[in-house]
Amino acid sequence: MAEDKYTATWVSHSSISDFLQCPRAYFLKHVYRDPKTGHKIKITSPPLALGQAVHEVLESLSTLPVEERFRDSLIEKFHAVWQKLSGKKGGFINEEVEGQYKKRGEEMLNRVMRHPGPLKNLAVKIKMNLPYYWLSKEDNIILCGKLDWLEYLPDTDSVHIIDFKTSKNEEEEESLQLPIYFLLATHCQTKPVSRVSYWYIGRNDDLTKGSIPDSEKEEARILEIAKKMKLARQLKVFKCPHKTGCHACKPYEAILKGEATLVGVGSYKEDVYMLDSTAGDSREKSVIL
User: CA triplet 42, 44, 45: central angle to 5 degrees?
Assistant: First the structure.
């Protein structure tokens, strides 16, 4: 089959996780478009806004020379980013809730300024807006995703994958996140990957080391799931495993029922909603950017 990225099925850690959790949620988040606007739909919430703001500040450092990364206060950069997510745009029901989340973001970035660790070292920047590679040309499937940070290790001429975590929950042992990032880093730049880590910047000064994935095993596991996703799209069958809906798809069903407030249009032209009934829900969720 000829390579055609416009007809290919694109999969990422986020879309794979959504599909495994609930095919209906996957459909509503990644496939469905509002017939009135032609846009996809997205939900904003305080934890997501916090993660987005902190990630944007930290990821911007990788484009700067080492000696310039901490020349300016990260808090000032954070405040500039926060303006884009303030109020309903970030899913905040009032100033008090917003203030609590904003303070948490400031605490995280103060931690990074006190203990910059690998962020003060050389970094590799993949020259692609969205890193991707052909997971299977035969099946016309592409794997894509953004990596938070690639530290360059000169002693071994290799890279260290670092994923920033702003939630309080630890990534599950069976998570495909680091395996997917490992595959992307392997295929989208030239240096071998010698280390993988999470950084739970809400509570830890140091990184949490992960295991180097088995490339062939993980690629086969991801491709098997991706094929199921492609088949679901071809058959247009996306059923929630629960008869009455689940916590993953119900918030998006609420948007379709008119039980949410449109608060803006996102950077990728998606309609962004704040849920009327659960806007103040502060439950933590892992954030993938």
Answer: 145
Written as six digits, the tokens of 9 are 């099925």
H/E element holding 196? strand 193-200
Neighbours of 77 (CB within 10 A): 17
Q: Which of 176, 177, 215 is nearest to 193 (CA)?
A: 215
pTM score, two decimals? 0.91
Residues 6 and 138: beta-carbon distance below 8 Å: no
Q: What does the block give as tokens for 119? A: 């962020």
Q: Residue 273 — φ and ψ, nearest 5°? A: -120, 150
For the chain, state the CA radius of gyration. 19
Q: Which residue has the tokens 């953004």?
A: 146
For the stretch 167-184, pLDDT in tens is: 888 888 889 999 999 999
Q: What are residue 87's phi and psi, to 5 degrees?
A: 70, -145
Query: CA-to-CA distance for 50 and 55, rounded, in angstroms?
Result: 8
The answer to whether residues 49 and 92 touch, using CB atoms and an 8 Å cutoff, is yes
Residues whose CB is less than 8 angstroms from the CB of residue 95 and which lie 6 or more positions away in sequence, other chains included = none
Q: Quickly tell me which residue has 């094929």 as its tokens.
A: 227
State both tokens at 138.
């035969």
CA distance 96 to 144: 37
Residue 263's SS3 state is: strand
pLDDT tens track for 226-260 = 999 999 999 999 999 998 999 999 999 999 999 99
Q: 161 near 181, Cβ under 8 Å?
A: yes
